[in-house]
Write a structure and sequence with these properties.
This protein has 103 residues and is mostly helical. Helix content is 68%, strand content 0%.
């Protein structure tokens, strides 16, 4: 038996907390995003996501910003992790939804 189950049996408020956990989980699984994201993209990561939104390739972004393609990939990878996405299109869409920038 888990500690949580024991806590729920002995403490009525624990049941309420458990219920709110389930509610939060169901909202998260339904694709609901928090009103205020707890993530912060660096200026460089945000600039690169903006360039991606403009349809530029990594090579074009690198040339425009005066950095290497590898550095562009590194920034994109970190942005993907922070935005919880797996590709360029999802990154742009998530950044837009979170209000990180406007096209």
């Amino acid at each position: 038996m888990s500690v949580r189950m024991l806590e729920e049996e002995t403490d009525p408020s624990a049941r309420m907390r458990a219920g709110s956990d389930v509610s939060a989980l169901s909202q998260a699984s339904a694709g609901a995003l928090p009103a205020r994201p707890k993530l912060v993209l660096t200026n460089r990561e945000l600039n690169i996501v903006r360039e991606v939104a403009g349809g530029l390739s990594n090579k074009q972004i690198a040339r425009r910003l005066g950095i290497s393609e590898k550095t562009v990939r590194n920034h994109l990878t970190r942005a993907f992790d922070k935005l919880h996405v797996t590709n360029r299109t999802e990154a742009v869409m998530r950044a837009l939804r979170l209000g990180l920038y406007v096209l």
